[in-house]
Design goal:
mainly alpha; two-stranded antiparallel sheet; about 65% helix; 10 helices
Amino acid sequence: MTRQGSAETLSSRMYAVIRDAILMGEVEPGSRLQTAALAEKYDSSTTVVREALTRLSTERIVRNIPQRGFFVQELSIDELDDLGRVRIHNDTFGLRLAVERGDLEWENLIITTHHRLSRVPRRDPQLPAVTRLEWTDAHRAFHLALLAACRIDIVQQVAAVVFDSTELYRRWAAPSFKPAHHDIDREHEQILQAALDRDVDRAAELLASHYGHSHAIMLKAGLALPERAAQSSHEA
C-alpha cells in the first residue's frame, strides 16, 4: 500500500485491508493488532492504521481496550447464539418494512445484487474449505440490499455489524462445518422472489429460516480456535 492519496482514502483502504485479513482468518481471534507493525507491513502511517482500527472497533470486528490497544474480537459459542437471535429479529423486522416500502429502484437493487451473488463462485478450488472473500462481499451486499428500503438507519447498521461478526465466526467454525447441509443458493432465490412478490410474511419467514440454518450448523460444529488465540488478548 502506498502513502499517496487523501487521508480519507488511505484510511478507507487500510480499513478494507485489515478487515479482509481478519475475516479471511489470517489474524487469529484475540490477537493483538499493533499499529506500528501494521504500518510497516502495509507501508502506511500509524495514524492511518489507528483510524482504520478505530473504525473496525465500532463494527465489533476489533476491540479497543483502554491502555492496552487493539485486539481482534474474541469468539464464544454463547455470543454466536446471541448474534443469531439478534440477526433474525433485526433483519426480519427490516425486511418486512422494506417489502412494504420498497420501490422500483429497490427491486432493481436486490435483483442486481442477487445476480452478482449467483455469479460469484463460493469456493476456491485450491482451498475448498474456505469461502472466497469475493463471495462474502457479494453475500453481504445482497443481504444489506434486502433491508435498504426499510428507511431506518439503525436497523441497517445493526445488520451490517452482525453480518461481519457472524462472518468472523464462520471463518473459525470447526472443520466439520459443512454449508452444503442446506441449499444456500436456493434459499437466496426464494427470499428474493418473496420480496419481489411483496409477500411480507413469507419473505420474513424465509429469511429467518435461512439465518437459523446457518447458525444452527455453526453452533453444532463449534469453533476451531488455536489455543494461543484465547490467551493472547490477556497479554499486557
